[in-house]
Amino acid sequence: MQKILSPGRFRLVIQTCFVIFFVYIGFRFIAFLAWAGGTSETFVSKPGAIEGFLPISALLGLRWLTITGEWDVVHPAGLSIFLAVLLIAFLCRKGFCGYICPVGFLSNVLERVGRSIHLARIPPKWLDIPLIGLKYILLGGFCYAVFSMSEKALGMFIHSSYNMTSDAQMLAFFLHPSLTSMSVFGGLFVCNIVIRNFWCRYLCPYGALLGLLAWVGPVHIMRRSSLCIDCGKCSKHCPSGISVHEKKMVRSAECIGCVRCVEVCPVTDCLSVVVLGRKSVSWKFVGIASVAVLLLVWAWAKLYGRWESEMPLYMLKRIYTSGMVH
Ligand code: SF4
Ligand code: SF4
Ligand code: SF4
User: Fold this and answer.
1) pLDDT tens-place string over residues 80-91
2) Structurally, how many domains does the chain consist of?
3) Is there a domain that residue 246 lies in?
4) Is the pTM of this model over 0.90?
5) Residue 152: inside a domain, yes or no?
6) Is 158 part of a structural domain of the chain?
7) Which residues line the pocket of ligand 3, CB cutoff 6 A?
8) What residues make up the domain containing 58?
9) Probe ligand 1: pick from 206, 240, 290, max atoms within 8 Å of CB?
10) Which burial class, exposed, middle or buried, applies to 130 when counting CB atoms under 10 A from its CB (0-12, 13-18, 19+)?
11) How far apart are alpha carbons 121 and 109 in whole angstroms?
12) What's the CA gap between 135 and 256, in Å, rounded?
């Protein structure tokens, strides 16, 4: 009999809740921009969560924190979210990718579409491995650019009107895409259907960083080879294309903790989520712990002034109307 709350449904519920939340904050942010831009009289506060879509800004804020000991006052919530996501990656594998990130959700949907029409593939190893390296090269490039900046240059960039309004510019980029960006989106869309998780697997530097943290983290998927009947179902269904049936312990930086492998395994307890290589925990651990860490960091940030910008409203309005938002 099928379980009422299977791992797949559990994950879908969490992902759907976050997608609804992201749509909500998107509309809130549009309403805020309408007020800030003077097209509406109704004041709507800027939703801090929108800054979660600015990982490069957050990386700059993290560097600023390490040099000066000061929290980024321009995008304080962005830095809080970034640190929460890094913590999630270390403690709960790539739970952010598997349960929270809206791009990951879209990627899953396209992968399923690709599978249903028998198109989705993982390229052969000789091509797959160098392609996986691309996202690490991009990550290295971003880290080098940010961590090689002098304190003065960093401070100037963080407090520039470009960085201050980067959230509005990002929104404009997605709401009014140019022909070039639409072509790129279209290409990525098709690539995600024919190659499983194309964007996340090969190009996302954020996912690369999270994968490295997950790799050194304490949570893994363990296969008990004494129970395994070598049916290969786990590997066949793994969205990240990991050869689960060949491993004793899945430590791969590509594992998003979706527990699809655990779900499809026909042998009870053959696959399980383990902490520190030994202690089995519930398959719900990655999803619940990822959301819990995010909520705890959010509560901490709200309590200690690391969420809302302290900028006076009249200044915010001036910044957003100073020609950066069209
Ligand atoms: S790899 Fe990047 S885009 Fe994909 S789910 Fe993870 S953070 Fe999101
Ligand atoms: S190894 Fe299992 S938990 Fe990890 S991505 Fe593959 S199916 Fe999901
Ligand atoms: S699905 Fe389970 S039994 Fe089948 S190969 Fe994977 S671990 Fe072994």
Assistant:
1) 999 999 999 999
2) 1
3) no
4) yes
5) yes
6) yes
7) 223, 228-234, 244-245, 265-267, 270-271
8) 7-217+284-321
9) 206
10) exposed
11) 14
12) 16
